[in-house]
Each structure stands twice: as C-alpha cells, then as structure tokens.
Design a protein that fits this description.
19% of the residues lie in helices and 32% in strands. The chain has 280 residues and is α+β, with helices and mostly antiparallel strands. The protein has one domain: 4-Layer Sandwich (Metallo-beta-lactamase, Chain A).
Length: 280
C-alpha cells in the first residue's frame, strides 16, 4: 500500500507542499485517496485509565502522561468527497482548504459516534457547515443520544439528510454503506460506536474511531479501557477482537486518537499487540 508524506516525518523526505506539523497525512487505498487530518494534539493523563495497575502505567505511560490527538479522515473516491467525523470543527476546515476541498464539496459525513470531539464541526448557529452532505450514523447511536441537546443541535440542520443504519458484525458479509465502504459495529465506547472499512483495488483501511485512546498501553494491554467508555468491559472486548482481526487479516488501521500519522499496521506482540506507523 502506497503512502505519501507531506513534509518530513521519521526521516522520510517531503514530496510535496506541506510540513508534517501542519497535520495532514496522505494514504492511498486502491484508487481512493485518504487524508488523515489532525484536529489538535496535546497531553493526556493516565488517571482516565480503567483496568491498569501502577506497574502497567509506569511501564507503558511513564510519568503518567501521554501524547494525545484528535483526528478526522477525508476519503476522495474520485466521485465523492467523504469525511469521517468532523472533530471540534476547527482545523478540519483549514486542512480541507489546503487540499483544495471546500466544505460545500463534501458529499457525505460518516460519524463513528456522537461525542462532541467528533460532531463539533457539523453546524454553527443552527446552519449546516457541510450543506451538500448526507450525514450517516448508526441507528443505535442516534437512539442512545436521543435526549442529548448537543447531539440534537448537531444533527438538526441536516433534517432528512441524516441517514441511520445498522452496522454489521466484524468479519461478516456486510452490504456496502457507500461504494467501497462498509460499516462495522464496535459497540462499547458508545452504544452505537461504528468502524468504517474502506476498500478499493484489493486494498483496505479500517478507520476505527475511538477504539483506542492511549496507544502506548492499549495496544499491548487491550483490556485497559478509559473513563470515556460508556461500557468499559464491552469496549475492551471489542478492542481485543478488532486488534486480532486487523492483525490476522493484515488490514491497516486508522484512528481518531492515534498520534501522527495515525495510520499503521497491527501485529501480535507478547500477549498483546503493537502498532507500526505507516512509513516505517
């Protein structure tokens, strides 16, 4: 699978245009162009971990802090511009402009779930920020957040252009949600948390939303969850299952809280897993 870097990262020389710290990473899946867009980066604290003892934290999160990120993904299929999540609604718009894509040119927004750092860019002042887009999300997710004013405000400007679906089971034969894209249930972080498998030309990328927040510890110890998880036990179970599936089927992954480049391959290591970032 071909990777293209904007700027210099890990000793890879720039090929075009942007510095790595501008937060754009380009990746190709068959004929699809996929761009990982960094919304923000910062530091998180180990106090949000559930199921990790002091020795685990000292080993995998030394000092009790870790690098954190919030990302979105743009998929350019050749026919459509598809955005997966909208972040907080800040840097994503600048990144799109850098790539020559206006918000009005986004055809679809796929939501992994309805937390604020994933839907913050949907609307402003009651107006849709992606006026042409159809918004897709799991029926289970919409039902769970039916009483949330924030979720309602984010979705309301899109009216009947909000389309709900039932994501399929991991590994099952799932009908495509959009050409080249299938939606996979990964309930636990939230009751409708959804992954999107992007496939073209025999290649693939599993965009897995918030399956992992703290990569330093949750790859080697997938049983560790975070306080953001609605159901920590279910989140740990599906995380373990997805990691096994991605490693066993050699499917690259991308995540909303993985650090730059936020795309890579998963392989077994000891009793857990390790992430090899794209380009290494």
């Amino acid at each position: 699978m071909k990777t293209v870097f904007y700027g210099v990262l890990l000793g890879v020389t720039a090929v075009s245009g942007f510095a790595a710290d501008e937060g754009i990473f380009s990746y190709r899946v068959g004929r699809f162009e996929i761009f990982m867009l960094v919304e923000n980066q910062g530091q998180g604290r180990s106090s949000l971990l559930i199921g990790a003892d002091a020795r685990d934290i000292e080993r995998y999160v030394p000092g009790g802090t870790y690098q954190s990120a919030t990302n979105t993904f743009l998929i350019r299929t050749g026919e459509k511009n598809i955005l997966v999540d909208t972040g907080f609604g800040g840097a994503v718009f600048n990144h799109l402009k850098t790539l020559g894509v206006e918000a009005a040119q986004i055809d679809a927004v796929l939501l992994t779930h309805l937390h604020g750092d994933h839907i913050g860019g949907l609307q402003k002042g009651g107006k849709p920020l992606f006026p042409r887009a159809t918004v897709y999300l799991a029926q289970e997710e919409r039902e769970f957040w039916a009483g949330s004013a924030n979720a309602a405000a984010a979705l309301a400007p899109y009216g009947d252009k909000v389309v709900t679906f039932r994501p399929g089971a991991l590994g099952a034969d799932i009908p495509e949600l959009l050409p080249g894209i299938t939606a996979i249930a990964a309930f636990g972080h939230t009751p409708g948390h959804t992954l999107y498998l992007v496939q073209s030309g025999g290649e693939g990328l599993l965009i897995w939303g918030d399956l992992i927040h703290v990569q330093g510890i949750q790859f080697p110890l997938p049983g560790v969850s975070v306080t953001y998880d609605t159901d920590p036990a279910a989140a740990a179970a599906i995380r373990t299952k997805v990691l096994e599936y991605a490693a066993g089927n050699h499917i690259p992954i991308g995540g909303m809280h993985l650090v730059y480049p936020a795309i890579g391959t998963v392989s077994p290591q000891g009793n857990g897993y390790r992430l090899t970032p794209a380009g290494r």
